[in-house]
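Slide 14.
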Amino acid sequence: MIDEREPMRLSVRVSAELNDWLDAESKAMGIPKSAIVAFATEQYRQQKNISVNTPDMVSLLKTEVTEELKKV
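Slide 15: predicted structure.
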């Protein structure tokens, strides 16, 4: 399902070093710094969801393998 709500504005403070890096990446990629930050935040969220769910996935996989081995 696609979230059709309007994007929200977010104000954050970053170090001068990180800002310099974002400036350089923004210029090199031809996209706004906010797009880089939004993309990085979304990637972090997805990775965190995967790492939180990994134990459940491993448990499910073990159960499936165990059931398949019982059939053999």
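Speaker note: The mean pLDDT is 89.
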